[in-house]
Amino acid sequence: MQSITLPAEWGLQDGVMLTFPHVNTDWKPILNEVKSCFVSIAKEIILKEKLVVICVSIDEVRDALGDIDYSKIIFCELPSNDSWVRDHGPLSIFIGNKPCILDFNFNGWGLKFPANYDNQITHHLYASKIFAPAVGYKKIDIVLEGGSIESDGNGTLLTTARCLLSLNRNESMTQFDLENVFKKIFGVKRVLWLNNGYLFGDDTDAHIDTLVRFCSRKTIAFVQCTNKNDEHFEELSLMEKELSTFQTLEGNPYQLVPLPMAEAIYYQGKRLPATYANFLIINDAVLIPTYDSYLDEIAQMSLQKAFLDKKIIGINCLPLIKQRGSLHCVTMQIPKGFLL
What we know:
The protein is α/β, with parallel strands linked by helices. The protein has one domain: L-arginine/glycine Amidinotransferase, Chain A. The chain has 10 helices and 19 strands. Strands 1-5-6-7 form a 4-stranded mixed sheet, with helices on both faces. It has a 4-stranded mixed sheet with strand order 4-3-2-19. A 3-stranded mixed sheet has the order 8-9-10, sandwiched between helices. This is Agmatine deiminase. Pfam families: PAD_porph. GO terms for molecular function: agmatine deiminase activity; protein-arginine deiminase activity. One of its GO terms (biological process) is putrescine biosynthetic process. Keywords: Hydrolase.
């Protein structure tokens, strides 16, 4: 039987995907503002690798991007409900040495939002021939969002029970069932489950990429709340205790890198799930969300400890957080060997 690997995000990449916002999405009231954020992300990515842009109008995106290196951009015109490609985009694995994309069901985070177009995007991307001829395709008939899992590329998967065991996703499946599926599909040896941790205003039921991230096989970055008056203090303290009990496959404690709990941000009277854990690892750099806060610099310096060989680059994500997501949520990396 051939081995299966779910690559870690810090592995070499061919590119990153973006699903560009448009007028027929919830972004409509702040469309120009959020487009500027997407342009900032795109410009940083093409300095390091290719960019796949899923959009309803190539001309509209070109107008937004302006004068940049279009030789690094692959356009795919497709309808979309929203811009969270982390959750509706493909997950990439290697079966032996053969690259393969997995197309899971996406149902709008447990039927919270329409997803009829987004759920078809991965299939249409594969049919559009943007991937190398050797890349395979598998449709997986369970609900899974990319933001709900973290891989160390070495057989360990990290996730949250609050998300994966929630209603309207795969409620007929137990934790044991899901672990067996992940071992079969991703080739992982074990799954580490977090039972604590959440962010107020989060629609995803505590995606792992808003709370805790693998930075290497031995290092985990996590959101730490030190303010006892913050509503997150108890849950995030319990989460930190859980993390302190986790061990690497070699039986050693993980090196834990705390990231500050973001300052409270409100929009239309509601607190938003701002987080510094929603960073994106690309070739030779890490893009971290910032929020016009004094904590931005502290978060970047903390993350630098986990990525000594990469440049930490801040991207203002205040527009993204208004729709309760951030930088990692609107991006999906494509490992080396997948794109033409």
